[in-house]
Amino acid sequence: MHAVDQKEESVFQRVVLKNASPFHYMKVHLVLENETTRLTAVELKHFIISGLKTLHGEVGAALNVDVLKYDDDTLTALLRVSSRGLVKLWSSLTLLGSYQNQACAFRVLQVSPFLLALSGNSRELQLD
Amino acid sequence: MSVFMDLNVLFSPDRNRLQGVIETAAHLGFSTVAINYVFEPSSKKKQEVPVPCPISELIDQLPVVQGRSRPIRVLNRLTVLMSDSSHFRPSAPEYRRFDLLAVQPTTEKLFHAACMLYDVDIVCISVTEKLPFIFKRYTIANAVCLMDSCKGKNVILSSAAEKALELRGPYDVTNLGLLFGLSDGDAKEAVSSTCRAVLLHAETRRTASGIIYTSRIQQEALHDSDCRFRLT
User: Fold this and answer.
1) Residue B30 sits in which domain range?
2) Could you tell me which residue, A123 or B18, shows the higher pLDDT?
3) Which top-rank group of organisms is this from (chain A) (predicted)?
4) Domain segments of chain A: what residues?
């Protein structure tokens, strides 16, 4: 009885997380001048690491970049990188201009610290 | 939401290529694009300022910008390469056909004069002059120097793209701004609100501080053609 009458004092604890996720995930699409060229996942990773090396040197090349998913028909890949290395990776993808003497461009479709956020893309919604 | 603009798309006589660039820019999310005609006056032979091609001739239907319901806006820009102060004539009538005026000085004295005196919208600094990519380190070094000296304010980043594959999305360019030493806010402004400020400056320059502009209206009955002033 005593326990029911007595109001329990609720204690609130507020937790604010800054940079909660140690990784950032990027969905990228490689556009090549010759649209029939295909790359394997290993070639793609090598290409990305070479871009990092060109722009950021050995420190950039040592960055842990993982290709989590790769669709070799559409040349779309899901990359994972540690949050400290996001700016380095993104800038080297932006400045990569040629693959085996043909012009290319990396189109970054989505970037998020949470992998679940990459499942929905509001840019693909049709505007009537 | 902010509008992103790319104020430097190099003009090429190949219509298909230019159309491809404009469509790619719309797909990437740029709301406004400016076609840049580069003009290099030389004292040896008399050169004419290029006449901009009307947009309706370039592309039939302007593509809709991804994420918005409006079509992309295409403007004309003129860049005058200056190696002498007589190269740029402030109120030449040929300049009126262009929406944006830019000046690219090659000497420091001209740069100073351009920033202080000349009535232009953009002062252009070329950090790379079509050198092979080995010289990329100078691009970044020069850009960092520039950002240092101007404290990152009133800077715009643009592509100078000739092909559709040379364009990059607005957030990619924002990220590059971080690489050049801009802060987060300044880097995004370099692609959006500073570009909008350039467009507004151009409008005020063309219309006497944005108050009065003249427009020729069709005269059906009258024989003499006169311009009417309209106050806005």
Assistant:
1) 4-231
2) B18
3) Eukaryota
4) 23-119
Between A48-57, A76-85, A89-98, B57-66, the lowest mean confidence (pLDDT) is in B57-66
Sort B223 into a burial class: Cβ within 10 Å, 0-12 / 13-18 / 19+.
exposed
Query: Which chain B residues contact residue A105 at CB under 8 A?
Result: 165-168
A90 to chain B, any CB pair closer than 8 A? The answer is yes
- Higher-scoring residue by pLDDT: A60, B205: A60
Residue B186 predicted with pLDDT over 80 = yes
Could you tell me where the beta strands, DSSP code E, fall in A1-128?
Answer: 23-32, 65-71, 76-82, 98-99, 102-112
Task: Enumerate the residues of chain A whose CB falls inside 8 A of the CB of residue B68.
Answer: 127
CATH classification of A23-119, choosing from 2.40.170.10, 3.90.1750.20, 3.30.70.3250, 3.40.630.10?
A: 3.30.70.3250
Asked whether the predicted pLDDT for residue B231 surpasses 50, the reply is: no
> Can you tell me the mean pLDDT for B163-190?
90
Question: How many CB atoms sit inside 10 A of residue B16's CB?
Answer: 8
Give the total residue count for chain B.
Answer: 232
In whole angstroms, give the CA distance from residue B34 to residue A103: 23
| Range B140-168 average pLDDT | 86
- Name the DSSP class of B72: P
Contact B140, B180 (CB under 8 A): yes
What CATH number has the domain bearing residue B166?
A: 3.20.20.140
Domain tally for chain B? 1
